[in-house]
Amino acid sequence: MRAWPENPPGEPGKPGKPGKPGDSEAEDPKGGSRDETEAAIRRAGIDLDPPPPGRHRHGELVHDDDHAHPHVRSERGEPPVIGIVGAGAVGTALGVALRRAGWPVAAVASRDPGRRERFRGLVDGVRAFAEPNALLDEVELIVLAVPDDAIAPLAASLRMYSGQAMVHTSGALGAEVLAPAMAAGTQIGAFHPLVAFADTERAVAALHGATVAIEGDDELAALLATMAEAIGAQPVRLAPGSKAAYHAAAVLAAGGFVALLDAIAELGRVAGLDEAGSLAIYGPLIEQTLGNARALGIRGALTGPITRGDRGTLDAHLATLRAHAPGVLDLYRAAAEREIQLAEQRGALSPEAAEVLRTSLATGR
Length: 365
Description:
Helices cover 46% and strands 12% of the residues. By secondary structure, the protein is α/β, with parallel strands linked by helices.
């Protein structure tokens, strides 16, 4: 577990703008006191008097961004204080899992009030902010659990303080996308759990035994590995430049598999089955095939008419797809082409038999 550095106090900066005498007694146009209005605005994470670029405020003091933050610091050898930006499916499940594992989740930032409140209801004691910049003062490790397209502009709008680290949960992007948020003495990385985040409790349970892809320098990677293990997952450090391929495979394993299930269910309806019936009938076959692949290897698990070179069965399939499920035809043909390649590589199909099957696929559009 990382021993977070004990940073020296930063140098005090310029004082912020003082309020005018009598401000606490003033009334706002809607009839409430100005104190109440300003308090509500500050609770939403909005800075009424933002400091200039490259500096930030603590109370009435303004500091350079690169100064150390002695007021938010875990004990040496203890987990860092965590803040999560994004209270959607991923951020909320991680917040719940980390808190249950005994890691300190201190703050969450989300512009959606409903999501903020739900997060607070599931993770006791967190401070909730509308804007992510307000969270930076509260934590040591910042986790950006936001959609991939939002990560780069979000990182460009943030500036870490010395001693902090920031990671994102994207499976497709590298850690370098966070570089704009860096200052002296900061670290960046990635923490991507290979889990389908469709439901909070199911996702938290699925983290046990799941893979978490991590990125970062050796020190941060060690911390992230410990964090993954704390929530029951297995950390894996990806090779540089491999993130997109890793994530494309994950998409096929999750969304791609769901698309395949939907195609199976569509054909099941032709046979008179509803969705539950198709899952009940074909689910065990899917599970058996996965078990065979684990035991025998992927090529060794291949069975069916393609492996046997059965052109008549292939032609019958293509004909019924054209007639009753044309939306499944392209997916079936793409899978069959891949099966032909595997069968050839395994030696189950001769080049001549493979060519016959490919001719059927090409003419059976």
